[in-house]
Design a protein that fits this description.
alpha/beta; TIM Barrel; 45% helix; globular
């Protein structure tokens, strides 16, 4: 049995625009609602949601039967957490709060087997179909997506140095945390935030590094993709549920005489 190519890894490397959705409901049932939509990628979040390894794995099983690539964000740049997620079959990882070249190199090393990294070796995992994928060790390094998230002004200033490290698939800008670092907590769409992000994003694009982000405005999401961003999440499952729930309630309540 051969390792299947990771479509998201190859798509962003070629510059093919990828539309994504944030998944924070921590439910395989909710994942089944999302999976048929056709998003190119989803982000299964462990940093700001109650996901654990089992709930993440259940969602990976759902998306495995779809055309959507599931990327997982662990709660930290932790070598053990990264190892366990890769063994569970995560096709890609988004590592939060990367602040330096050294932290980026640590993340890369965690995804690679010795002698190129420090990932622990197991011969029987969900990722290699319990030993049945015969070329897993030879190919997994090039198929795994590794995206690093920049969330402070200091990190953005090092975007090119971080993004051009061998093994980094792309750079993700976190506007909410960047805004907070700038004293604009709760204002991720403030013009000053994007005035900081865009020059760094363009510098990465000029060097062929795929760039992505999450925004809750679908018009702005499309604009970013048209302006050269490669992968953009345009909403979240929790946000969609909350907004639709509020709108439905308000509509019916407003129509009551």
């Amino acid at each position: 049995m051969q390792l299947k190519p990771n479509p998201f890894t190859h798509a962003i490397a070629k510059g093919t625009k990828q539309i994504g959705l944030w998944c924070s409901l921590s439910s395989n049932f909710a994942a089944e609602v999302v999976a048929p939509t056709g998003y190119d990628w989803v982000l299964v979040d462990m940093e700001h949601s109650p996901n654990d390894l089992n709930s993440v794995m259940a969602q990976l099983q759902v998306f495995a039967d779809s055309d959507t690539t599931a990327i997982v964000r662990p709660d930290w740049n932790d070598t053990v957490a990264i190892k366990r997620l890769l063994d569970a079959g995560a096709q890609g990882l988004l590592i939060p709060m990367v602040q330096s070249v050294e932290e980026a190199e640590k993340a890369v090393a965690a995804t690679r087997y010795p002698p190129h990294g420090v990932r622990g070796v197991s011969g029987s995992t969900r990722a290699n179909k319990f030993g049945r994928v015969t070329d897993y060790f030879a190919k997994i390094q090039t198929e795994t997506t590794l995206i690093l998230q920049l969330e402070t002004q200091a990190a953005v200033a090092q975007a090119v140095e971080i993004g051009t490290i061998d093994g980094v698939s792309g750079i993700f800008f976190g506007p909410a945390d960047i805004a907070a670092d700038m004293g604009l907590l709760g204002k991720p769409m403030d013009a000053a935030v994007w005035d900081l992000i865009m020059p760094a994003a363009r510098a990465l694009m000029a060097r062929g590094v795929p760039v992505g982000t999450l925004v809750m405005d679908p018009v702005f999401a499309a604009k970013l993709l048209n302006d050269g961003f490669t992968f953009v999440a345009c909403g979240s499952d929790t946000g969609l549920l909350a907004k639709a729930s509020d709108a439905l309630y308000a509509q019916v309540k407003g129509d009551i005489a």
